[in-house]
Amino acid sequence: MTTATPSSKAEPAASHEEMTKKAKKKRSLQFHGRDRTIFMLMVAVPTFFHVLLVWVPTLASIFFSFTDWKGFRFSDINLVGFLNYEQIFTAFSRDFFQGALNNLVLLLFLFIGPTVFGMFLAYLLDKNLRGSRFYQSLFYTPVVLSLAVVGFMWQSVIYSTENGLATQLFGAGTDVNWLGNQEYLIAFTDNLGISKNFIAILVAIAWRHTGYIMVLYLAGMKSVDPSLRESSALDGCNEWQAFRHVLFPTLKPINVVVAVITVIEALRAFDIIFVLNTPRRTQVLSILTTNNLLGEGGGNVGRGSAYAVILFLLCLGFVIWYVTNHYRESDV
Amino acid sequence: MAPLMWFTLTLLAIALVAGVAMTKLETRFTKGRLLLHVFLVFTGLLWLTPILGALFSSFRPFAETVSNGYLSWPQALTLDNYRNAWSQGGILGGYWNTFLVLAPALVLTLFFSSMVAFAASRYSWKFNVSFLVLFTAGNLLPAQIIIQPLFQMYNRVPLPDVLSNSGRLNGSVWGLILIHVAFQSGFCTFVLSNYMKLLSPELNEAAVVDGASVWVIYSKIIMPLTRPALAALATLEFTWIYNDFFWAVVLEQQGADRPITSSLANLGGEFFTDDNLIAAASVYVALPTLAVYFALQKHFIAGLSLGGSKG
Questions:
Q1: Residues A208, A100 within the same domain
Q2: Which ipTM score applies to this complex?
Q3: What are B35-55's pLDDT values in tens digits?
Q4: A323 within a domain of the structure (yes/no)
Q5: A43 touches chain B (CB under 8 A)
Q6: Which of B53, B113, B279 sits opposite A46 (nearest CB)?
C-alpha cells in the first residue's frame, strides 16, 4: 500500500488497445512528500480500526475455540484441541442440530415466503400505479422499526397468550400459547424437527423481510427498459410469460444480491429470534453462540467461540463466493 | 371464528372503498386496476396490523385490553401511557444517549469509509482491491464471532472517569461508537467505492494538472460528487445504528448510558408488566426512525438499491 504505481510505466509491449484500457484503469500517480503521507493516512487510519475491532476479534475467536477459557484471566487459558467441537457434536448435539436445522428452515422459508412475495409486490408496484410510493411505505415500515419495538409488537399485541390479536382471531375463544408451544409440527426424530413456536417466529421474520426484498426488486425493475415490456406485450405474451421470459432474466444481478442477502441473513439471524426466543427449540446458531458467551450458565468462551466459528465457516463460503464474484473482473 | 370473520370483512370493506378511490385517480378506470388497488390496500392494512395494534393499545388503559383483548371497541382513550412512559422509561435520557453514539458514529463511518473508498477506487496501487475485499468481507461477518474478544478487549481498556461512568471502554458510549464505525465502514466502503468508480477518471487528471493535492481532490472534487451516495448511506446508517440491538445489549449492560432502544426493558416489571405503557414507549422509540424514513424516503430507497445494484 506504500507505493502508488505511475500509469506512465505501463508495459511498452502492450498493444495500443490494451494501453488505452490500462490508461483508463490506472489513474494512479506517483505521490511525493505530503501527498504520500496523507494518502497513506487516509487508508491506514480507517483500516486500523476496522482490522482491530472486526478482524482481530474474529481471529481471536478462532483461537479461543480451541481453548477452555471461561473469560476471566488470560493465565487461565488452556489449549484443548478440538474438545469444544467434539462436545458440540456429542454432548450438545441436540442443541446444535436443532439450531442448525432451524437456520436451514429459516433459509428455505425466506426463499419461498418473503422473497417470492416481495418480488410479487414489487412487480405489482412497478405497474405505473397511482399511490405506488404510499403502498411501498406500508410494506417497508416494518423494516425501519427497531427490533426492540418489533419484538414487543409480536410478543404482546399479536402473540399474547390470553388477549393477543392472533389469539382473538384464531383461538376460537381459548388461550393459545403461540411462542411457548414447543411441540413439533414436523418431527424428524424425537429431538429434531420444526416446532410450532419456531413457525410463529418465522411469521414475524417474514413480516419484516418482505419489505426489504420488495424494495430491492423494485429498484431493479425500475431500471429495466420499459420498451422491453411493451414489445413483449406486442408479441402477445400473457402476463406470466412476459414476467418469466422477459422481466425475470433481466433481474439476474438483483437475484444474486437477494440470494446472498438471504443466505447471510438466514445464517446471521439473531435479533428477532433473540427477542421472541423461548427456552427450547427456537434457537439458531447465533443464539447458541450468544448464550454460551454471555447468557445464563454462560461464560464458556471456549464453547461459545466454537459455535461462532462454525457459524463463521458456514458464512465464509458465501462471503468468498460473493466477494470474488464482485471483484473478479474488477476494474478498480 | 366470529372475530376472524369480522376482522376480514372490515379490512375488505376498507380496501374496497379505498381501492375505488385510488382507481378513480388513475387515468382509466379498469377492472384490473380496481382489483390491484383493492388487493394492495387489503394486504397493506394486514401488514400494518401489528403496528396499528400497538398504536391503538397505547391510547388505552391496560386493564381494558386485558379484559377485552387487543381487538375490542375502546371505552376510554387516554394519554396517560405516554405521560407515564416518558417519566418512568427515561425516554429523554435514552434519546440523548442514542444521539451521543449515533452522531459521531455516523459522521466517522462516512468519513472513514469515503477515504478508503476514494483511495482504493480512484487510484490503482498494489493492494487496492485487497483492501476493498477486506472491508466488504468484514461487513458480511456474523457479529457473534466478534463479540466475545471485543468484550474482553473493551473490559481491559481503562478510561478516565470524565469519559466514562464505568471507568472502562466497556459500558461507555466510546466503545459503542468505535464498533459501529469499524463494523459499518465495511458496508459503506463497499457502496461508496462502487459509486466513486463510476465517476469520470478525467476528474483526477484535470485536478492534478491544476496542481491539486490528494486531499483537495478528495474533499473538493470527489466528495461533492458523491453526495447522493453519502445522503443515501447516511439515512440507512441512521436507522441501522439507531436500531442497533446486539452491540448495545452486550456492551452496555451497566444501564446509565444505555440507548433509547433499551428503555423498553426499563418498563418491564418483575411480576406485572403494563404492555400498553410499553406500547407508548415503543411509539417514542419508533418515532425518530419513522420520521427520517418518511422525510428522506428517496435517499433511503436509493441507499438500498446502491448496496444491491452491483452483483
A1: yes
A2: 0.88
A3: 999 999 999 999 999 999 999
A4: yes
A5: yes
A6: B113
